[in-house]
UniProtKB/TrEMBL annotation:
Stated name of the protein: Beta-ketoacyl-[acyl-carrier-protein] synthase III
Major localization class: cytoplasm
Key word Nucleus present: no
Gene: fabH
Active site: 113, 255, 285
PANTHER family per record: 3-OXOACYL-[ACYL-CARRIER-PROTEIN] SYNTHASE, BETA-KETOACYL-[ACYL-CARRIER-PROTEIN] SYNTHASE III, CHLOROPLASTIC
Length: 328
């Protein structure tokens, strides 16, 4: 049976830093409130010339460089995003064109904040089944374009960025690789976090006034409670499937939605927060980009070492959630 292995990681964030102080000049909030309720200090916001494919491309190039591979080595590209450049074609096709590899397959996956877990599972399955050998899996978002900058309950949360992994077929001499990945969704809760306008149900043109309907609506505290419960259940599901205990995990790389969600998860699972890779303070919630961005950070600063067991876990709009184990 083939296995897949992460050959390289990469990330990219826009240069423009927006602090809590900056936001408190636009809406009634404060640095203290945002830090205490979310753990966020600042986030990166794309400039007017930057869109999701620009961030995805840079993260993908960095992952390829770290894997010592070139675009020509890829069989395909999967981009997890809920904020594509265009309604269609996919952001993956735009990235593929700029990497200069026509003919490779390219498609987007939309599972919002859980998107990277969904993309990873698809890529892993394609490699396991022998359909392909080397894939670029990217999580990329420009959430800031879908934020209502007058809504203080959501505009403080989100940031822009991209993270990527190159996933390859594991050689017989290589240890490690992607293990169990479980995915879940419950569409009955579609309206917990959603963007009402801009789709076929409510196209942009029919909205009056235009624009505002294309921004994020979120039931924050309901989302919070469901996130904690679902994350815990899916982490336990993966541990059971792998036959390991929480003490055998070296790192948890979670979706970065709110530090209090991570604190609650840490307590419920009995895993110290110090073993969580946390960068929400600097990037906010970057949706599908958050796991590969945090993973890349911990790989580059050498917290993650060969032989480590890494647990990835995400919850997002849909609602969707999932967890996975990576043997480094
Ligand atoms: N500054 C000051 N006060 C604020 C702010 C703000 N930025 N935002 C809300 N408040 C106020 C509210 O108006 C409310 O005031 P009231 O009591 O007078 O009515 C009070 O603070 C408490 O509001 P809550 O919404 O109950 O605050 P909570 O502690 O739940 O924090 C938050 C809100 C940060 C949004 C939290 O609920 C959260 O993080 N939820 C989860 C988000 C998440 O996980 N999303 C996941 C995926 S995202 C995706 O998939 C795209």
């Amino acid at each position: 049976m083939n296995r897949s292995i992460i050959l390289g990681t990469g990330s990219f964030a826009p240069a423009n830093v927006v602090t809590n102080e900056d936001i408190s000049r636009k809406v009634e909030t404060s640095d203290l409130w945002i830090r205490e309720r979310t753990g966020i200090r600042e986030r990166r916001i794309a400039s007017s010339g930057e869109s999701t494919s620009d961030l995805a491309l840079e993260a993908g190039r960095n992952a390829l460089r770290n894997a010592a591979l070139s675009p020509a080595d890829l069989d395909g590209i999967i981009v997890a995003t809920a904020t594509p450049d265009l309604t269609f074609p996919s952001t993956a096709c735009l990235v593929q064109a700029r990497l200069g590899i026509p003919g490779t397959f390219a498609f987007d996956v939309n599972a919002v904040c859980s998107g990277f877990m969904y993309a990873l599972k698809i890529a892993d399955s394609m490699i396991r089944s022998g359909q392909c050998e080397t894939l670029l899996v990217i999580g990329a978002e420009v959430m800031s374009r879908f934020v209502d900058w007058s809504d203080r309950s959501t505009c403080i949360l989100f940031g822009d960025g991209a993270g990527a992994v190159v996933l390859g077929k594991s050689g017989s001499s290589q240890t490690g690789g992607v293990g169990t990945v479980t995915l879940h969704a419950d569409g009955r809760y579609w309206d917990l976090i959603h963007v009402p306008g801009g789709g076929s149900r409510s196209p942009v043109e029919t909205e009056k006034p235009p624009g505002n309907a294309c921004t994020i609506r979120m039931k924050g505290s309901e989302t919070f409670r469901m996130a904690v419960r679902s994350l815990e259940e899916s982490v336990r599901e993966v541990l059971k499937e792998e036959g390991i205990g929480v003490n055998e995990l070296d790192w948890v790389v979670p979706h970065q939605a709110n530090i209090r969600i991570l604190e609650a998860l840490s307590e419920r699972l009995g895993i110290p927060l110090g073993r969580f890779v946390v960068n929400i303070d600097r990037y906010g919630n970057t949706s599908a980009a958050s796991i590969p961005m945090a993973l890349d950070e911990a790989v580059q600063d050498k917290r993650i070492q060969p032989g480590h067991r890494i647990l990835l876990t995400a919850f997002g709009s849909g609602v969707t959630w999932g967890s996975g184990l990576v043997h480094w």
